[in-house]
Amino acid sequence: MVRTVSIIGSTGSIGTQSLDVLRANRDDFILLALGARSSVDKLVEQVNEFRPAMVAVADGDSAIQVSQRVPSGIKVLAGQGALAEIAKEADIIINALVGFEGLAVSITALEAGKRLALANKESLVVGASLMKDALGRGGGELLPVDSEHAAIHQCIHGWSSSVSRLIITASGGPFRDLDAKFLGRVGPEDALAHPTWKMGPKITVDSSTLMNKGLEVIEAHELFGIPYQQIDVLVHPQSIVHSMVEFTDGATLAQLSLPDMRLPIGYALFYPERMKVPYGRVSWSDLVQLEFHPPDREKFPCLDLALQAGQTGGVAPAWLNAANEVAVQSFLDHKISWVEIAEVVADALAACDLSQPSTFEDLVAADQKAREVALRSVENRQRG
To answer: Which residues contact 308 (CB under 8 A, 6 or more apart)?
Structure first.
């Protein structure tokens, strides 16, 4: 059966790799829609190759430029609601956006009864309860695209009631072996030099601080219903074991492959079948060793900040995510140091209220408040 696909965030790392998977499996899918914030040249190139029926561009000026450069007959939607609008239009929605704005797309897709291939971890971190409500109302389907959660999904399938522990692996990022006394001197170019994965700048910086792993623990808790005390993180420099599931009988299952995001993307597209095109195939005769180490929690405080927010619940995860987005962008803009990312996030969490969000608007308000607090923290550090 040929299925239709919409890719939202198509010009980013996950979006472009999703298109790689579609190119390799042209007989199985039809690309119905593409969506991006504002990357005009790259989006136009994608549209000219795949000829989707619809294109959504969040930035109005960029949308005008896109409409002038794509073939006639392709519908171009513009504005902040455009990305969510195309989340109603295909069998499978790949949410490859980065950041809080991905939540509206996720909710819309699930309410419309679609299969949501979720690469936007912020959706579950910030709005898990709203997403679960949307899933219940619309009867959609949620499949994770993060390599760690796709690995868990494959290992846990059929035995969810017998899970004893989840082990989420982390590469450790570019500063894994760097002495802590040098962390105050690292710059954006250092943080963006990831040893194993090719990702966008925000996620790559999150990997360097281990915030990415903290967000993934929250996401795993929400996806699989496993208590936080039964979810562990291990540093695995080779990035071959993408996560493990330990069961009540002592057995542990793991998913192994070379680092290649096209594998979990394809898994989400083809599930419950398997893709016929291989990605990340391991040459076992060349695999020398697999290492696992506990993370250095003093050196990477963002991990525990994320766990604190997840266990606190309410709007705390939304505050965590918003403050981290502000802090990471400030670091990339050379406004604060790498070590101050965690400090800005900690400042925001200290100011967080304990309210329980019940609507999307509640989360928008929490996101805005947290950004204001984080921006003040950044400004104070610049003045200091």
So the answer is: 316, 349
Structure tokens at 380: 């104070």
pLDDT in tens, 253-262: 999 999 999 9
The tens digit of pLDDT for each residue in 140-180 reads 999 999 999 999 999 998 899 999 999 999 999 999 999 99
Tokens of 24: 């390799």
Q: Yes or no: is domain 3-144 CATH 3.30.360.10?
A: no
Q: Report how far residue 218's alpha carbon sits from residue 128's, in angstroms, rounded to the nearest whole number.
A: 10
Q: Which helix (H) or strand (E) holds 33?
A: strand 29-36
Distance between CA 37 and CA 16 in Å, rounded?
Answer: 14
Residue 264: asked if its preceding bond is cis (omega within 30°), the reply is no
Using a cut of 0.85, tell me whether the model's pTM lies above it.
Answer: yes
CATH for the stretch 313-384:
1.10.1740.10
The structure tokens listed for 144 are 């994770």
Copy the structure tokens of residue 59: 């930035």
